[in-house]
């Protein structure tokens, strides 16, 4: 049975979700799951929840915990990365300092100054992790859940890891589009491709019928041009009115995989000033504030109670399915972020692209896409430029590349002068120096 090492296991709920998902498969219930985190108190909370889950269902799963990364990685078959380097303290700087320059990021973990600096912090830690993996578990499959997904996955394979980046935005958006079309998502056949949080649904079918024309018409009428679009406070979906994604779909012809709030951070059109932002997104949504208000112990308790009520069933995260398919040779299709080696032919070679992948005993195998629709690829390429500069900066400690990454960012570049970019970046470095030792001497 496999050993699964979860790095950054002190997070709230998500590590328990992974454990529940793995244990939902009878073939994996004798696995060893090693929980690792540098914060003993948070690690202890996850350990207690994991053991309660195992006892609740009388499972033979072995649960271990350690603050020693090497101990956790030793002999691992799968390494799951769930860390947030710097935690809420660093995250506060990611979002609050840029706001002083007019760069308002409702999440700030994927692109923009916040995503760039979160990526730099993570690359610092990935350097040591990759060395340990190559020594202690060189054949391990690495499943990266840490944002910024494309930046972190790109850096991880540059550092020699056998890595796939995993997210749930494809699953969530496919559910939304199936509801829009009025059909059960389990009966749909779809493909999405592009970048994480900016993958395009280039195929969506039901019983062989192409639903994309009907979806385009419905989304644009409801959210952009029609009567309902006039009231942008109208909550048509749980995630809010999709005016931003609707307008991007009107521009490109295709719906992408991230919510309007989060997706508005990656383009220059919707967050130029408070008035423009309010017009596109009338309800404020701030993920940093949500994280500050998390009742972590309460959420873990509610998670365990829900598991008790509904039984052991895997959720929508791909991680456990990858483990199960690899161990049992049960073929599946997932969407994952992988190295672009001729997969999407009009995006740069070597970047991290999110595409459909086959999974079986041979691991994760990406499928060929070819050219994306031209406007979709153009939007992606603007983001790839920022991702590449961030990865190169993180691996080299070159501070000048960080200035360039922020300056080239679509949102920051639409708002800030180069002088403001330099000042903002310097302030972010000063605030986060403890997590960025590679930049201690100015690059």
Commentary on this structure:
Helix 1 packs parallel to helix 14, helix 5 runs parallel beside helix 6 and helix 8 crosses helix 9. The radius of gyration is 21 Å and the shape is globular. A six-stranded parallel sheet has the order 3-2-1-4-5-6, sandwiched between helices. Strands 7-8-9 form a three-stranded antiparallel sheet. It has a three-stranded antiparallel sheet with strand order 10-11-12, with helices on one face. It has a domain of 165 residues: Rossmann fold. The protein starts with a strand and ends in a 12-residue tail after the last helix. With 443 residues, it is an alpha/beta fold.
Structure summary:
The protein has 443 residues and is of the alpha/beta class.
Can you lay out the helices and strands and say which pair or pack?
Blueprint (H helix, E strand, L loop, with lengths): L2 E5 L6 H10 L8 E5 L3 H17 L5 E5 L2 H5 L4 E4 L5 H13 L12 H25 L4 E4 L4 H10 L4 E3 L3 H13 L6 E8 L2 E9 L2 E2 L1 H14 L17 H10 L7 H4 L10 H7 L6 H6 L3 H15 L8 H10 L3 E8 L12 E9 L2 E4 L7 H23 L2 H10 L1 H6 L2 H14 L12
Parallel strand pairs: 1-2, 1-4, 2-3, 4-5, 5-6
Antiparallel strand pairs: 7-8, 8-9, 10-11, 11-12
Helix pairs in contact: 1-2, 1-14, 2-13, 4-5, 4-18, 5-6, 5-15, 6-15, 8-9, 15-16, 16-18
